User: Fold these one by one.
Assistant:
Number 1:
Amino acid sequence: MQERGWRRVLMVSHDYHLARIHMTSRRAGVNAVTVPAHEPQLLLSKPRFIAREVLVWLWYFARPAARSYQR
């Protein structure tokens, strides 16, 4: 992004991923705008995916930022 002079990036994903995407982007020094993807049909496994995402989000939040992410 720095080589191209980009200041922001748009990241699109399922709504349950967006909090973690935003947090990891900030840790990497990336100014990200997150947008939920359109879901044409309901995911029957979405409650399980959300539960898994919460656990992973807590793990990401609890661990210190990796050195490669720091400026």
Note: The beta strands are 8-13, 31-36.
Number 2:
Amino acid sequence: MGTTFVRLAALAMIATGAAAQEVDLTGKIAIELNTVRDGDSACTLTFMVTNGHETAIDQLVYETVLFDAAGQVDRLTLFDFGALPVGRPRVRQFAVPDVGCDGLGRVLFNGLHTCAAEGLEAGACAAGLVPSSRVEIEVLG
């Protein structure tokens, strides 16, 4: 019984620590590169995106720069994340043709192309970007 209490206490401390490390997304947009997958002469990038603003976003598009593993620019493109409800994560996939996932080294959200949202201040989608990655490809914004 004492061992069970110690285990439960340890789990509670771990859970509390994890909660303390969460990023406050109020007024921000979090974009996480979650997975990458090779297939049919393209690399598919899967992102999880969360809108931390107080209003839904009708359309969100970022100018995105893909760098190869050597650090050189491979291409500039637009990633359209579509409509984003408030506070609910959404998953979006983009197939990048003629590149293998192992050939990508970095993704840079270079600038905001479109942020259509009624009542959202101009530039709010650009200033509050929180990029992250769960894979070996670095994500910057």
Note: The longest helix spans residues 2-20.
